[in-house]
């Protein structure tokens, strides 16, 4: 572990490098700070991301830019209804020269996999992607092949498209650490975006962290900010996640929520809160870090009833209510 810390540097230098990542992304992307922060925290927490937003808001270019800054391998797959699992994982093919079969690896063998419009692919493709996300391996033919140690899926979906889409399986949704909502830019940001595009300049980016350093940094953060199962913040996180479940929450929640978050959400919230505290330079994980991470971690795991939807209530409203009613200390 000492060697890992030596490779990364001290805590201050790590924080400076995180700031540098944001600055480098800012040379290409205007605004969208929440999305950029979420991607950085997910990278350092080993979590996949679901990006939801209208077309043209910079989701794809942001992921490509982060990959360049990290000198990471990047692959993009446009999900369509006619996609097959082999288009993600790869396939076994016959080589006429050697008269032997060989494996043609697919785009899943990368560091950052952008699954564009993920909800357009059928169930078999989602199943193959689920194995890659959970097990960090893919099955081709009768054999399983490990993926890169640094492997993240960043999936996008358009909230207004219904025709030609499929509902994502709940098991797959639960594997995403975050669901980030990508909104429209402000007037000033949109004007700057237009000015940059009409100049038609390609920004030169510096490499800030390598994939190997990202992996080392994950261990270092856990060493610098340890969380024991008996700590008050872990107890608070557990109470928050349990409060999303109808059988655990108040009477009103039972009418609004069909299913709450799984224990996987507690793990994700603890990891994300720790990284959030780390990159903000705090020496301990505080409730405000948990509150900030609660929305992206929980919003896709809280499944609403038809009654809630008819009243215009979304999962963020439920999370806000839970954060307000759940005591920090008990």
Set down the secondary structure blueprint.
Layout: H1 2-8, H2 11-26, H3 33-45, E1 48-53, H4 59-69, E2 74-78, H5 86-89, E3 90-95, E4 100-105, E5 112-116, H6 123-135, E6 137-140, E7 143-146, E8 152-157, H7 170-173, E9 176-182, H8 187-199, H9 211-224, H10 232-242, H11 251-256, E10 257-259, H12 263-279, H13 287-298, E11 303-304, H14 306-310, H15 315-325
Parallel strand pairs: 1-8, 1-9, 2-5, 5-8
Antiparallel strand pairs: 3-4, 6-7, 10-11
Can you offer a commentary on this structure?
- The protein is of the alpha/beta class and 330 residues long.
- It folds into two domains: 2-209, P-loop containing nucleotide triphosphate hydrolases (Rossmann fold, 3-Layer(aba) Sandwich); 225-325, Magnesium chelatase subunit I, C-Terminal domain (Helicase, Ruva Protein, domain 3).
- The chain has helices spanning 2-8, 11-26, 33-45, 59-69, 86-89, 123-135, 170-173, 187-199, 211-224, 232-242, 251-256, 263-279, 287-298, 306-310, 315-325, and strands at residues 48-53, 74-78, 90-95, 100-105, 112-116, 137-140, 143-146, 152-157, 176-182, 257-259, 303-304.
- The model is unreliable at 1-7 (pLDDT under 50).
Provide key terms for this protein.
single chain; 330 residues; alpha/beta; Rossmann fold; Helicase, Ruva Protein, domain 3; 2 domains; 5-stranded parallel sheet; two-stranded antiparallel sheet; 15 helices; 11 strands; 48% helix; globular; disordered N terminus
